[in-house]
Structures are given as structure tokens and as C-alpha cells.
Design goal:
This protein is mostly helical. Helices cover 61% and strands 4% of the residues. The radius of gyration is 18 Å and the shape is globular.
């Protein structure tokens, strides 16, 4: 999630560059995770409903992202951009296929609500759209805002998509969910009214900010 925000723009203009065997070894877990997930999903019977279909799409969405905290200090500086490009060249087709399938399943009410698809199904749909683009965030943030107020979407899911849209539109984020890389460390991107950040987070069902930041304390250098 976070790495997509950091590197997407740079990758779009990064030419193909041969990677050393050292760099290929560092980023290999991403490819391996995709292959494993695809094989596991291919072995399953057809999904019984759209909730199960969403959960399988989530599995493939998350497989590479769970191993994407690459230690870039182990990659030569001259290959860092190309390594990032190589990673996203494998993930982008998955994201695009997932989004296409999700939009084809989109119910008339405009989202996959908790009452109909379960919390897991609704959360899976969120991840797929969160990993799409600004046109989709612009479309769905107003929908999620209303549904979050009714308990039909997790408040944290709405908050994360709101923050991503805000930053991509040049505005500060409201809930502090999006991090950026500075001096090799993940730090919060621009914040709206930092003094009242925890009030906003808690009101929507998120944890105190110090707890969220602790999740990044032991990450490898970015």
C-alpha cells in the first residue's frame, strides 16, 4: 500500500535496466510469493459467491505485498529505481485484473457492504480499490464515507482511501495513514491539523497514532 504511493510516479518513467544477481536475489521473494499464490488459487474449485471471489482476489493482491518491505540498503543505488520498477511490473497486472473483476461485480448500491458481503469481503474490496488509481479513489471515497457512518464499511478503510486521495490531489492527509520515505525511514506524509489527529482517528475507529507509527519502527531502510 505505502510503497505504491512512494514509487508509482518514478517507476512510470524508469527505463528497463539490467539487474545484478545480488539485486535479483533481494527482490526475488516478491515473484515467488505471486507464483505460490497463483498456484494455490488455481487448485481451488470455482468460488461459490462474490464474497469468496473477493477473498481470493485479496489473497493474490496481498501475496507480494506481504514481502515487499525490501531492504534497499542491500541494493546498489544505481539499481534501486530499476528494482522498484521490476517489482511493480509484476504487481501492476494483478492490480489491474483485480480491479476489472471487482467493477464487473459492483452491486447496485455502489459498494460491497458488510451486511451483505461480510466484513472480510468488504475489506477485500477496499484493498483492491485502494491499489488502483486516483479516478477510482475519487469515485469511491464519497460512497465509503456515507457507508462508514452507517457501519457498512470499516471506518479505517474509508480513512485510508481518503488519505490516499487527499495526498494525490495535493492536500494533506486527515488520518495519518500514508507514510513516505525520508533519509531511509518511513515517516508520516503531510498531515492536516496534527494536534487533533488522534481525535479524528479514534472517532472513526482507528488506533491512537503512536500505535500505528510503532508498526514501522523495525522496517528495513526504504
Amino acid at each position: 500500500m505505502i510503497l505504491g504511493l512512494l514509487f508509482a510516479a518514478a517507476i512510470a518513467s524508469t527505463p528497463a535496466t539490467p539487474l545484478s544477481s545480488q539485486t535479483q536475489a533481494v527482490i526475488a521473494p516478491v515473484h515467488d510469493a505471486i507464483v505460490r499464490a497463483q498456484a494455490e488459487l488455481a487448485a481451488l474449485p470455482p468460488p461459490k459467491d462474490d464474497t469468496e471471489r473477493l477473498l481470493r482476489m485479496q489473497k493474490l493482491d496481498q501475496a507480494p505485498r506481504r514481502v515487499m518491505q525490501i531492504d534497499y540498503s542491500k541494493i546498489p543505488a544505481s539499481e534501486k529505481a530499476a528494482a522498484q520498477a521490476a517489482i511493480w511490473a509484476e504487481i501492476r497486472p494483478i492490480d489491474e485484473a483485480n480491479l476489472k473483476a471487482l467493477l464487473a461485480m459492483l452491486p447496485a448500491e455502489g459498494w460491497f457492504t458488510i451486511s451483505r458481503y461480510g466484513q472480510a469481503g468488504s475489506a477485500a474490496a477496499f484493498l483492491i480499490v485502494q491499489h488502483s488509481d486516483i479516478s477510482q479513489w475519487s469515485r469511491f471515497v464519497p460512497v465509503l464515507e456515507k457507508l462508514a457512518a452507517r457501519g457498512e464499511v470499516r471506518g479505517g478503510d474509508y480513512a485510508l482511501m481518503y488519505d490516499r486521495l487527499a495526498l494525490n490531489e495535493g492536500r494533506p492527509q486527515r488520518y495519518g495513514s500514508q507514510m513516505t520515505c525520508k533519509a531511509g525511514k518511513y515517516v508520516p506524509d503531510r498531515l492536516e491539523d496534527p494536534d487533533h489527529l488522534d481525535e479524528r482517528r479514534i472517532a472513526i475507529g482507528m488506533s491512537p497514532y503512536k500505535n500505528y507509527l510503532a508498526l514501522f519502527a523495525n522496517d528495513p531502510p526504504c
